[in-house]
Amino acid sequence: MVELLGPGLAVAAALFLAIQVGCIRIGTDSGRSNDALIVVLLVNITVLVPVALVVGYPDYSLSRNSLLAFAAAGLVGTMMGRAFEYAGIERIGASRSEPIKASQPLHAAVLAVLVLGETLTPVMAVGTVLVVVGVAIISWESRSSSTGLESISWSYLALPLASAFLYGIEPIFAKVGLATGTSPFVGLGVKTVTATVAFYAYLRYRGVLPERGVFESVNTKWYVAAGLANSAFLLSYYAALAVAPVVLVQPVLQTSPLFVILISYVFLQRLERVTWKIVAAAGIVALGAGLVALQV
């Protein structure tokens, strides 16, 4: 049973991530993504910081190294990774940017082996590749309606690649912080506060801070629901990292498209179109994640 704890937490994290995606999809149908992001981060602080304070009390075991590691995870994963992701979508379109960003598990696996000394077996490597291929097909098919991007500079492809690399680095910092003995809940609190402050500073610098009216919008309930789902995702994700290696957690986490497809088919038919290519790609993702999980 203990051996199944890591994969189980990773699958739970994938489910909560998919629920978050569904809520954001509905909310941003008539709202703005920046408004959604700031509300989600505020909900993260409201949920995760009290959990960190209660669970970690009285000894938070937060050394300077763990503080820096979790702060770096927030800056690299939530702030910088997201900035490069959005820049890539803006310049080359989601249909080209998202499949490249889906290479994140490969970056995470390679970095985990090189930096943390984790073991990547041949079967786990094949499973990771299958996950990436499946997610790439899903992203490409979902965004295939993008037009007007026939002539682009190949140098722009570095943007989503940088995003995938940064997202892959984030769990490495998290594992470094967890290795110091800091509770994953305390680490989440540090990561969330750091990311929120950084994102707020970024929006303020760009002059695109959401107006107060956003909190009274009809879309706010969906943003709050997304924030709650995201908080549950983060709790499950960090708990998984605390008991399982990155080379397991990251690929299994990519099963979230399976849940996204199910949610889209049942609840979002007005907004999403589920095709046989997406279903087939979801099968590839499930197969890849299964291969990884079987090697634990």
Write up what this structure looks like.
With 296 residues, the chain is an all-alpha fold. The protein has one domain (2-294). Helices cover 77% and strands 0% of the residues. The protein is built from 12 helices and no strands. It has helices spanning 2-27, 33-56, 64-92, 94-101, 104-116, 122-142, 158-179, 184-206, 220-243, 246-253, 256-267, 276-294. Helix 1 (2-27) packs parallel to helix 10 and helix 6 (122-142) packs antiparallel against helix 12. It is globular and about 45 Å long. The model is unreliable at 145-152 (pLDDT under 50).
Number of beta-strand segments: 0
- Portion in beta strands: under 5%
- Looking at how many chains there are and whether they match, the oligomeric state comes to single chain
Overall geometric form: globular
- Please give the domain count: 1
Structural class: mainly alpha
Helix percentage range: over 70%
Mean pLDDT over the residues? 79
Count of DSSP-assigned helices: 12
Q: Nearest-angstrom radius of gyration?
A: 18 Å
Name the poorly predicted regions: 145-152
Determine the N-to-C terminus distance. Answer: 12 Å
What order do the SSEs take from the amino end to the carboxyl end, as H and E? HHHHHHHHHHHH
Sheet with most strands: none
Concise overview:
The chain is mainly α and 296 residues long.
List the helices and strands and how they pair.
Blueprint: H1 2-27, H2 33-56, H3 64-92, H4 94-101, H5 104-116, H6 122-142, H7 158-179, H8 184-206, H9 220-243, H10 246-253, H11 256-267, H12 276-294
Helix pairs in contact: 1-9, 1-10, 1-11, 2-8, 2-9, 3-4, 3-7, 3-8, 4-6, 4-7, 5-6, 5-7, 5-10, 6-10, 6-12, 10-12
